């Protein structure tokens, strides 16, 4: 059998620990990072951590800071223009998923090194070489730069609002369904199934499920576990060269809701709901997944997010059209309105 070339690009170093943002300068020197640097952040995050970041990077070289308001093509273009002027050797993304996505996408377009400094454990884009950019013509992620290094300060990550932490649990638990979809596709369509990367993604989901049992008593420890789970799910995507291990029908549902009702909920919250719904269709123990989300106070009903029942049903009926090339339990024809409504009602996602 001829083995096709497959290149795995992984981060050079991942720093995880309490209060380590204060050691940024030391890390940058260890990594031979030199200026100029471009730091991309968001308006809320800027108020919280940027002083620590600046202290670290200013000694390494000139630093330009820019804030993004969303992860749209317009913001990508604006940051790209700044990067062309500043000519940074490194782009630092300091923030949530949107900041990190814009940073790594601009870094990819201009072939500049990217450093990931997540401030919320809300998504597994922390490590992945993919970015979700609005306005590129598709709601799913596109190829982006693998982080050169990651600095994950657990003090910062665990002081993010609880809603963001819970969203990270939702994004990670989703891998239970994503891996089932992948296995199903391999059986039905002959698609390549990567056992190793699937196992890595599943391990992340297992950790996230465990986190829900300790989060209410030991937030910091569970955020550490969650962060590691998010990082390894991102590594799974990097090794697979695709988001396949981390994104199946539960993500299709999240993308569909986002298309119908933009910005009503966080990515991980929608993935959490999608996981309950798709686990039901797969015949997996969806009650256990719902219980885990309920235990931490993550939404399990669309009404908790202000999403009308009709939007949930409509989203279920169009989910299979979002990424037709990736086969899932939804098949090629998707769900009828009445079956979608039954699934949403049986699982309690709509009342
Ligand atoms: N590339 C990939 O593989 C993946 C990408 N994603 C993408 O990531 C995005 C979701 O990321 P998510 O983080 O949920 O959403 P956002 O990036 O929109 O962050 C949500 C909010 O949290 C704020 N925030 C971040 N950190 C802190 C903190 N420590 N304290 C207080 N507020 C904070 C942000 O502030 P501010 O306004 O300053 O930014 C923002 O207002 C989606 O676009 C999704 O598609 C998700 C999974 C994987
Ligand atoms: O969110 C992701 C993984 O958690 C990326 O998934 P998509 O490729 O479906 O955008
Ligand atoms: Zn996701």
Name the descriptors.
single chain, 351 residues, alpha/beta, Rossmann fold, Dehydroquinate synthase-like, alpha domain, six-stranded parallel sheet, two-stranded antiparallel ribbon, 14 helices, 10% strand, binds NADPH dihydro-nicotinamide-adenine-dinucleotide phosphate, binds 1,3-dihydroxyacetonephosphate, binds zinc ion, phospholipid metabolism, EC 1.1.1.261, G1P_dehydrogenase_arc, metal-binding, NADP
Query: What's the main sheet like?
Result: 6 strands, parallel
CATH architecture of the largest domain: Up-down Bundle
Question: What radius of gyration results from the CA coordinates?
Answer: 20 Å
* Structural class by sheet pairing and helices: alpha/beta
Provide the spatial order of strands within the biggest beta sheet.
1-8-5-4-2-3
Give the strand content. 5-15%
Count the E strands: 8
Q: Return the domain count.
A: 2
Overall pLDDT confidence: 96
| Ligand catalogue | NADPH dihydro-nicotinamide-adenine-dinucleotide phosphate, 1,3-dihydroxyacetonephosphate, zinc ion
Number of DSSP helical runs: 14
**What would CATH call the homologous superfamily of the largest domain?**
Dehydroquinate synthase-like - alpha domain
- Shape designation: globular
What pattern of helices and strands is seen along the backbone? Answer: EHEHEHEHEEEEHHHHHHHHHH
Head-to-tail CA distance between termini = 53 Å
CATH class of the largest domain: Mainly Alpha
Looking at the structure, the CATH topology of the largest domain is Dehydroquinate synthase-like, alpha domain
